[in-house]
Amino acid sequence: MKYSIFYLIKGNAKKYRDNLVNIVGQRFAENYVINSKLPAHITLKAPFETKNIKLIENILKDLTKRHKKQNIEIKGFGNFKKFVVFLIFKFSISALKIQEELIKKFRETKGINIKQYDKKWNPHATISYCNTKKNFNNIWNYLNRLDKPHFKLKFDNITIMKKTGKNWKIHKKFILK
Questions:
Q1: Which domain holds residue 58?
Q2: How far apart are CA 173 and CA 154, in angstroms?
Q3: Could you tell me which of 126, 102, 111 has the C-alpha nearest to residue 44?
Q4: Which of 50, 94, 122, 174 has its CA at a distance of 20 to 30 angstroms from the CA of residue 29?
């Protein structure tokens, strides 16, 4: 089975991101993120295959027992190579350490591959994938006319997502104390 590890965004930040995804998707005919139906999230561990999800559940159970929820913030807009447009997240040092420990535990787990994304992690919440350079420029100009978003959140969950067919569904959610 294929899984990924997410932080699920909640509250006003989730509403803001979801609204922006819909506006950008409809206004610029970039509907991939809308159609994916993924919940608002930050990927903590890139997709991986495992037949032993109980082992992953135990890692996350232990990790969330030992750590408290931490501060994170949305600090504006960013992009990857003028293709992916996203909300920039700034994790506190303590929150970063949780994600680093998560990757370290996975690195030590036989059969779980660590991808480039995991090694050079850049916390973000995707707004749109742009199909053309012109569309990227139009979306980027639109976003830069908006007030810079700023939300304070708690990094309070680590969630296992499971791929079922073309969709990702919540498998299990772990709460940081």
A1: 2-175
A2: 15
A3: 102
A4: 122
On whether the CB atoms of residues 156 and 44 are closer than 8 A, the answer is: no
Query: Rounded distance, CA 67 to CA 64, Å?
Result: 5
Please tell me what DSSP assigns to residue 40: S
Which regions of 28-68 does DSSP assign to beta strands (E)? 41-49
Domain count, the chain: 1
H or E element, residue 152: strand 151-155
Which tens digits make up the pLDDT trace of 97-144? 999 999 999 999 887 889 888 989 999 999 998 888 889 999 999 999
Cα 122 from Cα 88, distance rounded (Å) = 9
Tell me how crowded residue 81 is: count the other CB atoms within 10 A of its CB. 7
Phi and psi at residue 6, in whole multiples of 5°? -120, 160
CATH value at residue 39: 3.90.1140.10
Backbone dihedral angles phi then psi of residue 50, each to the nearest 5 degrees? -155, 150
Confidence band for 31, pLDDT divided at 50, 70 and 90:
confident
The answer to whether residues 136 and 83 touch, using CB atoms and an 8 Å cutoff, is: yes
